[in-house]
Amino acid sequence: MRSRSSTIRTHRAVTTLAALLAGALALSACGGSDDDKKTGGGASSSAGEKGSGVTLPKLDGASLEVAAVWTGGEQKNFKQVLAEFAKRTGAEVTFVPAQDPIINFLGSKIAGGQPPDVALLPQPGAIKQAVDKKWAKPLGPEARAELAENYTQGWQDIGKVDGTQYGAYYKAANKSLIWYNAKAFENAGAAEPTTWQELLTTARAVYDSGVTPFSVGGADGWTLTDWFENVYLSQAGPEKYDRLAQHKIKWTDPSVKEALTTLAQIWGEKDYVAGGASGALQTEFPASVTQTFTGGDQPKAAMVYEGDFAQVNIGETKAKVGTDAKVFPFPAVGSAAPVVSGGDAAVVLKDSEAAQALVTFLASPDAATIQAKLGGYLSPNKNVPNSAYPNEVQRTIAKALIASGDDFRFDMSDQAPQAFGGTPGKGEWKALQDFLQNPTDVAGAQARLEKDAAAAYGNGG
């Protein structure tokens, strides 16, 4: 993992970043539809702006397979990036849809003698596992040069294992956002909250207007870990967040009890979650977003928590980001609002000139600019022009991420061993799904979390 700056410096930086987001999002929420028309997407043959012109070899006759868990619009947009790589190099590139947990998926492919050439891994823990299993190959000098040119040291370091660069972070996520149905808020006379208490007040106003406050994609356990991480980071602070992420404190710690008890103020409030707990546990993430922005004046919910990538799903409805679908930063639970980031790193599994060239391309502004223009995507690449993002909301989110430099906190569950933090039906995902079903059992949730964490980390906290 990357080196950490001091807790005080990071805490200030996180507070500043959240303030930047809050102010800029408030300004940008009024517009966006015109920007969509002016800067709309479409892959181009070159980024044509700062940092463009990555040198790629001719690869006529080469074929590559690229695996990722992306689906829907996200997959469709990434395929445009792959098509551009094929156009520039002559290589034939095939996208391979993977399932969570991707390490298990890759294990079955490797056991069958058919590993993909490159995989996009969504957790630093998964990169380490791929290295430990001797699947991952170190990145070559061309890819490392692109990373050094385009990424802060922090983003480079989280792609390293024992000092060797294995991952190039192609995609990032700001996972500290709550999207809301502007009409539902207007009808309820609700305001954008900046604190947890204000969020509860806003939820009550929405509920009193006849609309369920929150949509929760509980069928996908990772959404629940993201809820927890934002509450915990803001309430317990960066230092404890880092310690819990490394299992240097136990999940039975009072700070975890406090965060779960706070979450229960929403998850345990009768009729605050669309479909109730049982309905939420049957709702996958994409549907949790789309049901918030369909149904006219009676959507299934007024708000949905998740990262900037929710825009891809909003795009599948008639709602326009910035007008019908607005966003505010995750409210401060403690003294500072949280800023949690995630990301997907390109890792070479079959070492070849073509595979290394693809990761080099993905580490360049050229590739990221193509997908940035298509929307619902955020790059940690500091040389992607802000103007590439298709609306003011997205430009604001991207600018805030780059402005944070190395002062961000990476998704806690993504730092964990995949058995604990990244496996459906197990570990943290399952424990938080059970807690959503029964938010009164804080102690039981803590005990399950600690038992599973101790087994996955191989230590007692």
Overview of the structural elements:
The chain is an alpha/beta fold and 461 residues long. Helices cover 48% and strands 12% of the residues. Strand 1, helix 3 and strand 2 (92-97) form a beta-alpha-beta unit. The radius of gyration is 21 Å and the shape is globular.
Structure summary, number of beta strands: 12
Distance between the termini: 18 Å
Question: For the residues shown, what is the average pLDDT?
Answer: 89
Task: Note the quaternary state here.
Answer: single chain
Strand pairing plus helix content: what structural class?
alpha/beta
Strand content: 5-15%
The level of helicity is 40-55%
Low-pLDDT stretches: 1-16, 27-51
Shape: globular
Structural Rg: 21 Å
The major sheet is characterized as:
6 strands, mixed
Q: What's the total helix number?
A: 22
Précis, in short:
By secondary structure, the protein is α/β, with parallel strands linked by helices.
